[in-house]
Amino acid sequence: MKHNILIKKLICLFILIHLLAESNAQSVSIISSNTKASFRGLSVVDNKTIWVSGSNGTIGKSIDGGTTWKFITIKGFEKIDFRDIEAFDDMTAIVMGTDVPAYILKTIDGGTSWDIVFKDTARGMFLDAMEFWNDQSGIVIGDPIDGRFFIARTFDGGKNWIPISYQNRPIADSGEACFASSGTNIKKINKQEAIFISGGHHSNCFIKDKKINTGIIQGKESTGANSIAIKNSNTFMIVGGDFNNKDDTTKNCYVTKDGGKTWLSSKTNPNGYRSCVEYLNKKNWITCGINGVDYSKDDGLNFTKISETGFHVCRKAKKGNAVFLAGGGGRIGKLIK
Description:
Methylamine Dehydrogenase, Chain H
């Protein structure tokens, strides 16, 4: 009898240890903070090649998985905030500056030199994010000008950018815009199409010609959707909140599993305002904000905080499984699984 009780206690102890190990399996390790720049652009080419971009014209690159970094300031762009970056290998990358004049630059020599491939001085111009389907075809989105979101396309690897005609641009509601918080408010959903999300007084999801209210918190300039991640053509997740209230968990995460027809909120939300979300694998997702990092193992139904350190952006390797994060104070982190 005592033997059976002992066995049951050992089994319970084993299960408890296993559950604790599972719940604490993920963490974030700081791997660099060698600059004072604030990073919001992050592109992870593979497990070894990582590029970051941010304030004061700063670009960073690692080709050894984040062990060592090289940081540069692009000459002539010392006052530009590069909010998004798209890298294709260790030599080729495209960076996006935001407000007037809005710039897009490209390097093909590892960052030694940069060519201006797009410049716009129009009043109200503010670029928010880029996305590429492949190494040739890409898209950039910007805040509304005269009531319509700015969109431009490239079909030659970013050498030239062609704005779409005004009448074909998506219509914005009053007080609606995009947040250039992590370069992730526009994503590809298949080989031809992209989806983007907005925030502010109105927050919507734009799929093809449809404009869908997702239910995420909205009503103020500081509220709305900040980032979208794609699992497949039917399953997306959006995160956001109120960046003026970093600890507020109200309506800050929604998931659709039917291509945007219906949206469901999390049962256990991320722990505050979140500027970026990334799909990892199976049912695993990661999201980050200025008060920490959260992880979900059940397709966003429940989130658990895995780090108290704040980051602006988190991205998984395009070719690989490494996950990196970047944020203020030159902070760059890596997900430890």
